[in-house]
């Protein structure tokens, strides 16, 4: 299985240097990344919203190694918030943050991440937008959900992400499905051990459906993060059977993936939000996208061999 190998490679500095130096990498990265600079990402936001799509922006960066880097991540999001407000885009674009970029993995990381992300959530609320806390590997889940609970006491619109490949996620969905919550359900994109996560794709899919049923039957706002046509269809059926209106849930897909499907859902009246990553620290995100879809990896490898 190449997926786990690629996920392990996403944390390798040596492989990062190799991939970054390959001439074919840039065109592939451009498919999934909206640009390295804030101005480039705003251009993508304007283009997407003009086509009826909503957006969530992710300033790429994770696993920071010192407090200075964590402060840079905070400042990048504060600049993004200011830009969204100035461009009049805050009503259509929210932000996704990885708490590891705010220092979660450093000594005292829980308190540090909370201290760094709080001003971003405050600024987002003042600008008329909001923040969703991305979920990372299983060791961070408890800390991330605790930070979410703290933030939601003042900013109840703060969102969370849960991953269906983790055994615990059905229980987390039950806890998060209350009134006012915003929960993005994804399958998961980290290399997790069999002690905490389903290893078989069919089991991950079954768990996704069980979690989706919990969220759709709850009182919160489900965000269906999937490119899988079956999951999209199941979500539509559940929404219909449970009497959810079109503005009481949304679909989310990644920038550059299944673009025609994104536009189809918008044409049917659904709210469709595109996850738009930008920034110079693209490597880990890029490798996870290759791991998720064999077609992406095949295209990349063929291009690499062809260039050589």
TrEMBL record:
Q: Which residues form the Proline dehydrogenase domain?
A: 44-299
**Entry keyword set:** FAD, Flavoprotein, Nucleotide-binding, Oxidoreductase, Proline metabolism
Q: Which Pfam families match?
A: Pro_dh (PF01619)
Report the catalytic activity.
L-proline + a quinone = (S)-1-pyrroline-5-carboxylate + a quinol + H(+)
Q: What is its EC number?
A: 1.5.5.2
Gene3D superfamilies given in the database record: 3.20.20.220
UniProt key word Oxidoreductase: yes
What cofactor(s) does the depicted protein rely on?
Answer: FAD
Pathway assignment: Amino-acid degradation; L-proline degradation into L-glutamate; L-glutamate from L-proline: step 1/2
Domain of life, source organism: Bacteria
- Tell me the InterPro entries matching this sequence: FAD-linked_oxidoreductase-like, PRODH_bac_arc, Proline_DH_dom, Proline_oxidase
> PANTHER family under this entry?
PROLINE DEHYDROGENASE 1, MITOCHONDRIAL, PROLINE OXIDASE
**Protein name (record):** proline dehydrogenase
Instruction: Write down the species.
Output: Streptomyces mordarskii
